Amino acid sequence: MSTHRATRQQSVPRRRGVNFGWSLGMVLRRWHEHVEEVLASLPHGSRGYHVLAVVVHEDVPNQNALASRLVIDRSVLTYLIDDLEAAGLVERRLDPSDRRVRRLVATERGRQVLAVAEGQVALAEEYVLRGLPVEQRAVLRNAVEQAADAIVASAPMTDPCLAVDSVLEPVED
Fold first, then answer.
1. Residue 14, Cβ neighbours under 10 Å: how many?
2. Which range has the worst mean pLDDT, 15-19, 25-29, 64-68?
3. CB neighbour list of residue 165: distance below 8 Å, 6 or more residues apart
4. In this structure, are residues 63 and 77 in contact, taking their beta carbons and an 8 Å threshold?
5. What is the DSSP letter of 39?
6. Is the four-CA dihedral 21, 23, 28, 33 of positive or negative sign?
7. pTM for the whole thing?
8. How far apart are alpha carbons 70 and 116 in whole angstroms?
């Protein structure tokens, strides 16, 4: 028996037939469709976006740390970075404190592209969540971010890309 089962005090009444996983899957599918569309010009779409966002907004010391942060296989990350670098969005620079290490740094163009992409993603997210009142959108975003942080803290090797791919598999008739 799973230890994740809710107790009676923790359970929240739900409509009959509503499945949390199905609901998350539907939101994720629609998010993915709209975000991939607005990020079509960015190398690797949403994956490239996530890499660029971490490089711009967080201090990751090297590619291994970035792979760990995003839970992306290092060999896959190498290809992502190669393409972001070829597009002039990031650079690999020698770390002055350890010449064996290459740090990823966003270029000025990369920062500009990310700023535009973040605005486009925000608009796409608002469109996807348009069925909710504005205040509920913020609550949902915060709750999902907290749940994701808790999952990463408890299972740091969970690959979000594989999780997304499993939800986004084509549906057979």
1. 9
2. 15-19
3. none
4. yes
5. T
6. positive
7. 0.77
8. 21
Kindly report the backbone phi and psi dihedral angles of residue 91, in degrees, each rounded to the nearest multiple of 5, phi listed first: -135, 150
**Token couple for 106:** 């966003």
**103 vs 10: which has the higher pLDDT:** 103
Q: What is the pLDDT of residues 69-89, one digit of tens each?
A: 888 898 999 999 999 999 999
How many CA atoms are closer than 13 Å to the CA of 119, on its beta-carbon side? 5
Q: Is 107 exposed, middle or buried (0-12, 13-18, 19+ CB in 10 A)?
A: middle
| Alpha carbons 50 and 157: distance in angstroms, whole number | 17
DSSP character string of 105-172:
EE-HHHHHHHHHHHHHHHHHHHHHTTTS-HHHHHHHHHHHHHHHHHHHHH-TT--HHHHHHHHSSPPP
More confident position, 75 or 96: 75
How many angstroms separate the CA atoms of 92 and 159, rounded?
24
34 near 49, Cβ under 8 Å? no
Number of CB atoms found within 10 A of residue 108's CB: 9
Residue 98 DSSP SS3: strand
